[in-house]
Structures are given as C-alpha cells and as structure tokens.
Design goal:
The protein is mostly beta strands. It is built from four helices and eleven strands; from the N terminus they run βαββββαβββββαβα.
Length: 207
C-alpha cells in the first residue's frame, strides 16, 4: 500500500459489469457490490491522479447518454484491509440518477455536493456536508433551489432541509404527496426543518 502510482486516462469506455469485475480483481472480498446499478449504459471515463492505494488523489469525469458527473476525490482503503473511504466534491449535469440507481420516480439531477462515503460489503454510508440542487426531476416535474446536509445509510436520508424554492414548471403529475413548494414555509429559509426521508418513500410517490 506504500507503492506510489500516477495515472492519466483519457478515453476509457466501461460498463458497470466491467467495472465490477475490475473492483473484484483489485479489492477481492472487500469490493463494494455495484452490479445492480448503471442502467445498462456504457460510460466514457477520463481520470487523472496520484498517490498510494491507501491515500489516492484523483480527478474523474464520467459521461454517458444518462448525463455527466465529475469529481475531485481523496480515496483510501484500496488495499482491501478496510472499507473504501472517499472524500469528494461532486458535480452532476442532467444525470439520470433514477435510471442509474433503479428509482423510477426520479430522473435528471443537476447538483453540487461535498461528501464523505464508506463503501464496504454492506450498505454504503454517505455523510453530506453540503448539497445544492439546481435541478431535480421527480415524476416528470422539475424542482430547483434545494439545499441540504445530512447522512444517507440503509436506504434512508437523515438530515436537514436547508431551503426550498418554488417549482419551475407547471404542476406535478401523479397522485403522490409531493411537497407543496408554493407554501410560504417551503419557499423561504427553512434551515430549522429536519426530517428523515426514505428512498422507499420517494418511490411511493409514483404509485
């Protein structure tokens, strides 16, 4: 884990099954299981970085028909002795998160976030320092101006909704209990509001 590496990859084309196979080869039994994600897309990856397997700095950009994501990250735990840890700044542009993660109620997301993640054999744990969403398409309906901070684990988000702004277009479709962003309590600074939101609840909006 003390071996220093430098890398610069311009045009890597990869699918999630191919990436899973690579992680299994490198990390063995400690490799996170990402096989159920990806939406069947092929991803074009550009990455540059340096460091050791226990402390690696990397810049990564990924694009596909599902949108794009870029990140600057500090990665630890690539030796397999402990869960993989990631400290990252992440930006997405019209990324179809729903198709990638298998959540029908959500489509394109444009955001900026600073977060820490622990990836092991169990469910990932993600701690979000800052999250700013300029576009969230849920049930074919765009929301904007959302900011939050908190933790995501065991398929649920537990944290603080810092601010909602009005919806951008029309009215939402579907019969779910989508937050009324016209409500004054939801259009101003609501930094005192805390809540736990399950991904199951989000999916239920589409029912």
């Amino acid at each position: 884990d003390k071996m220093h590496v430098d890398f610069d990859v311009e045009d890597l084309s990869v699918t999630i099954p191919e990436l899973q196979a690579l992680l299994n080869d490198v990390l063995g039994s400690s490799a996170p299981d990402i096989s159920k994600y990806g939406g069947g897309y092929r991803y074009k990856v550009r990455t540059k970085g340096s460091g050791t397997l226990s402390d690696l700095l990397a810049d990564v950009s990924v694009s596909s028909a599902a949108g794009s994501i870029s990140t600057s990250a500090r990665i630890g735990g690539l030796t397999g002795d402990s869960p993989m840890s990631i400290r990252a700044l992440v930006d997405t542009k019209d990324l179809n998160v729903g198709e990638i993660l298998g959540i029908d109620a959500i489509k394109q997301v444009t955001l900026h976030t600073s977060a820490d993640a622990l990836l092991g054999k169990g469910a990932p744990k993600i701690s979000i320092d800052t999250l700013s969403i300029s576009r969230l398409n849920a049930l074919d309906y765009d929301y904007s101006g959302i900011a939050a901070a908190g933790d995501f684990q065991d398929n649920a988000f537990n944290g603080r909704i810092i601010r909602y702004l009005k919806e951008k277009y029309g009215r939402p479709t579907g019969s779910g209990a989508i937050p009324d962003l016209q409500d004054p309590a939801m259009t101003g600074d609501s930094s005192g509001v805390t809540d736990t939101v399950s991904a199951t609840d989000v999916c239920a909006l589409a029912s």
